[in-house]
Automatic annotation (TrEMBL):
Entry GO MF terms: DNA binding; DNA-binding transcription factor activity
Keywords from the UniProt entry: DNA-binding
Name assigned to this protein: Helix-turn-helix domain-containing protein
Superkingdom of origin: Bacteria
PROSITE patterns: HTH_CROC1
SMART domains: HTH_XRE
Family annotation (CDD domains): HTH_XRE
Source organism of the structure: Allopontixanthobacter confluentis
């Protein structure tokens, strides 16, 4: 299957291996694959494409994981300073970030 690391024929087999012996690189790759295979959209997709967990991104931008989760679900919107920090951490433009938040 396209995009899977060598030695894995399905996303499920790769994720099972990650669960058994997770390392940082495998976790990051699993997150990136989820975006493509599970049709993740919005801020979560931008985050996963960078291989980050919610907790990792939240820490990097100086917020909490529950707050980031609420932004990803669309129940809250981040303020300007948070938008700037997210944009910088995810290495996207403001337009890309705003489009993701509207998805």
């Amino acid at each position: 299957m396209d995009g899977l690391p060598q030695g894995f024929s399905t996303l499920e087999s790769f994720l099972a291996k990650v669960d058994q012996a997770p390392d940082v690189e495998m976790l990051q790759e699993a997150r990136r694959l989820l975006v493509d295979r599970r049709k993740v959209i919005g801020l979560a997709a931008l985050r996963l494409k960078r291989g980050l967990s919610q907790a990792e991104l939240a820490k990097a931008i100086g917020t909490s994981q529950p707050r980031l989760s609420s932004w990803e679900r669309g129940t809250e919107k981040p303020g300007y300073d948070s938008l700037r920090r997210i944009k910088d951490e995810l290495q996207v433009t403001f337009d890309e970030l705003m489009e993701a938040l509207d998805a």
